[in-house]
Amino acid sequence: MSQRAQSHDEGVDDVVQSVNADGVDEVAVESNRRLYGGWQWWLFGALAIAYSLFHLVSLNIYPLETWSFRILHIAGALILGYGFYAGTQFAETPQARSSAWLRWLSYAMLLPALYALVRVAMMYQTMNDGAMRIAPEIEAWHFGYPLLLATVAGIVLSWSYRQVRDGLSPADAVLMVCSLAVASYLLVMFNSQLRASTGTPFAPMGISYAAIAGSLMILELTRRVAGLALVIISTIFLVYVFVGPHLPGFLGYPGLSVGRFFSQVYTDAGILGPTTAVSSTYIILFIIFAAFLQASKVGDYFVNFAFAAAGRTRGGPAKVSIFASGLMGMINGTSAGNVVSTGSLTIPLMKKVGYPPRSAGAIEAAASTGGQIMPPIMGAGAFIMAEITGIPYTEIAIAALIPAILYFASVYFMVDFEAARKGMRGMRKDEIPRFSKLVKQVYLFAPIIILIVALFMGYSVIRAGTLATASAAVVSWISPNKMGIRAILKALQLAGTMSIQIIAVCACAGLIVGVIALTGVGARFSSLLLGLAGVSQLLALIFAMCISILLGMGMPTTAAYAVAASVVAPGLIDIGIQPLVAHFFVFYFAVVSAITPPVALASYAAAGISGDNAMGTSVASFKIGLAAFIVPFMFFYSPAMLMEGSWLQILRVGVTATLGIVLLSATVQAWFFGPVKVWQRLVMLIGALCMIYGGIYTDIIGLMIGVGLYAMQRTRNGTSTAAPR
Prior knowledge:
Strand content: under 5%
Number of helices: 33
Membrane topology: Multi-pass membrane protein
Shape: globular
Radius of gyration: 27 Å
Number of strands: 0
Distance between the termini: 36 Å
Helix content: over 70%
Function: Part of the tripartite ATP-independent periplasmic (TRAP) transport system.
Keywords: Cell inner membrane, Cell membrane, Membrane, Transmembrane, Transmembrane helix, Transport
Protein name: TRAP transporter permease
Organism: Chromohalobacter sarecensis
Structural class: mainly alpha
């Protein structure tokens, strides 16, 4: 090879290296996240590793009693959460820390917290000696009151106590001890005959004290890791428990006492119910799986593969965003997290080839949101759906296939038509990774393939997830990022810290689910939907859509779906909709709440990267993801979209709906093999809705409109405008 050619190749390699995905797998560090050093780094790292190993062992080798397992699952997340996440801003320097008196007051609160914990140990001994229950005055004065004092004081002090970023606040140390005391007491009582007394006048008040303290700590941790939206909604539901008996109309109910409600809410009727059941099994397992994939740099490979596959088409980085977000969505549990991981690379590149900042952010937000409905993992919501409905997870994943294709097809054609209308170019060959090099590492897809194959071979989700996790480590041994003992421990540590947010959110959602179940407000909402359906089923569906989006605003997908599934889905089932269709309807709108103004978390995250206005980006992402607001209605009118029906029906509905999505995208972007006029856009919208609807006659009408417009555009514009690429 000549020296000139060699220097050219080196220059190309430099350019390729500059756009190669690197660091996509890195976890963003939140502003209130502590960064320990020294012995504290070792301590909390070991706690995170132990937490991950506890779940792997309990799920695969040594199963625990169900309630005990879930109590430990939540307690571990609370202890880790208060260890890693501060309740207020950090002090910039040691001198800027809070006053000494505040520090000593925080340390003083350790005394009642430790006293409550010691009393639990004494209660355990008393119960072992044959006592049937603990004296009420002991539970109140020697456990309940000290615990509540320490919990409330710890939360309030944590709001004002400022510590440096690498140090643990004493107020949070108090909350960690309180978390341990709550879990210890509940383990003692729920593993005795007193477990059967929950929700009755005979329940020990100590259970209520523990539940109140536990609920407060769950709400506070949720505020730290997920913001105020879910906390506010949870508080409204809790207030309803005691205000509801005084409300008129369908909102009123007979009422529950404090003791009766809280003795039952920290059971499988609430916090330990379906949401925690899923977070303690499927979600934690797939977080560990995702951590192993991240440790082996699979996320970087996914994004580079997307660049190589779609980077050279017109508007290339936007299409890379679609492919990469779909792939990353399989290993990333939140829409906003997906935006941060892939958008930091794709949004600047979209701007580079001509997309305005608003369009770049909106495309990334819409694509990342779609990752939550992408089989086989579909974020965490699908696992909750399987738990609530009793429908096998594999059936849910299959049912999600056509809707996912329609969603990503919609975003793809929106992007393609906008690129064609604005004359945008793709990326040059020397700007993207070499496909020939990436093909040699295609084995990195093996863990995902093993997961899918294991699921469809009949393995349980837990066994399939464990096999996929092990295969991620094995596959890494033939990749450039080999996982040794240190890397495996790092992955387990990463999984422990990654799980904090989703577990806190699921526990907080469980609190809302408990209120709904114990007050019966869900049943009354169902009767309201039934009344609306008597007037119009479409009106009932629109009302259900609005409530699902409203409940999901500002909330992670998992919590949004869990709450909506408790409030809305039963009402849809009561008006005659099949359970799978009803839950998918709710699930879709819970997902797209992330791009629905005015509170659109995914859009806000994308706007932060693109530098555009957050509200403008959310409106633009809403427009790009428009199909997601139409397709759920078609589940009701055409269940074949969820693989319900013969193969011929499913194929027809899938093909015509996809063509309808193309027309819908053309309508929004005002481009269909060339610019289109206003009247053509109206006709295209009619044709799109006809084909998305799924009926035979409407499909024929839609196809006739599509073919007619295609012929008209080709005749007018000739062959100068190529088909979508």
